[in-house]
Amino acid sequence: MQYPVMEHFYTLQGEGAYTGHAAYFIRLAGCDVACHWCDVKQSWDKNIHPNINTNDLIIEAMRHEARIAVVTGGEPLMHDCAPLTHALHEKGFKSHIETSGAYPLSGSWDWVCFSPKKFKAPLFEFYQLANELKIIVYNTSDFAFAEEQRQKINNKDMVLYLQPEWGARHKVMPMIVDYVKANPIWKVSLQTHKYLDIP
Ligand code: SF4
């Protein structure tokens, strides 16, 4: 099986529940969600990125110590991720995914970070199966969107995060702090890798 891959690299997970964990990142190309503030727009067109064999990705990942692989995008679930997660598990990796939930889940995942977007409706299944709900806050209307999403959750163990959109962080961060203080069911997620310039 081959996947269009924008980049793959060893780093620290910078955001969400696994912040600070070393992990191998695999950024699959292709996305039609079209968030206007997207910081990886070069991932949208899968045709401009090379197709890489699953085995080659795993061999690269195994050169490093950590046994967490984070599959992100783009929107990784535009592809059938079953062969990829099967291969990762065979080599002892925990499989993590970051998805908008706009496409059906494929593959077997140890951690699902669900980050729904206003621009393409997510599928209902993610409100039940995700481990982590991460709402990107770009402006004040995103707090209402966050609550709409939370109301749909059918998994009491799901961790709830509000994360400032990087370009809007100076404007929205004070609002997020006030919101979390008033609504402590939410936690703040920061893109620590960007603050610390961790590639
Ligand atoms: Fe960018 Fe992710 Fe939105 Fe796709 S879902 S447009 S990759 S932020």
Q: How would you describe this structure to a colleague?
A:
The chain is globular, with a radius of gyration of 16 Å. The protein is of the alpha/beta class. The two termini are 28 Å apart. Strands 3-1-2-4-5-6-7-8-9 form a nine-stranded mixed sheet. The protein has helices spanning 54-62, 82-90, 126-129, 141-151, 169-182, 192-195, and strands at residues 2-12, 22-28, 51-53, 68-72, 94-99, 111-114, 132-137, 159-164, 187-188. The longest helix is centred in the last third of the chain and has 14 residues, at 169-182. The structure holds iron/sulfur cluster. Iron/sulfur cluster binds next to loops.
Strand order of the largest sheet: 3-1-2-4-5-6-7-8-9
Mean pLDDT level? 97
Q: Report on the biggest sheet.
A: 9 strands, mixed
Radius of gyration: 16 Å
Query: Could you tell me the strand content as a percent range?
Result: 25-35%
Spans of at least 5 consecutive residues whose pLDDT stays below 50 are none
First-to-last CA distance: 28 Å
Number of strands: 9
Shape: globular
Counting helices, strands and paired strands, the structural category is alpha/beta
**Order of helix and strand elements from N to C terminus:** EEEHEHEEHEHEHEH
Ligands: iron/sulfur cluster
Counting DSSP H or I runs of 4 or more residues, the number of helices is 6
- Percent helix: 25-40%
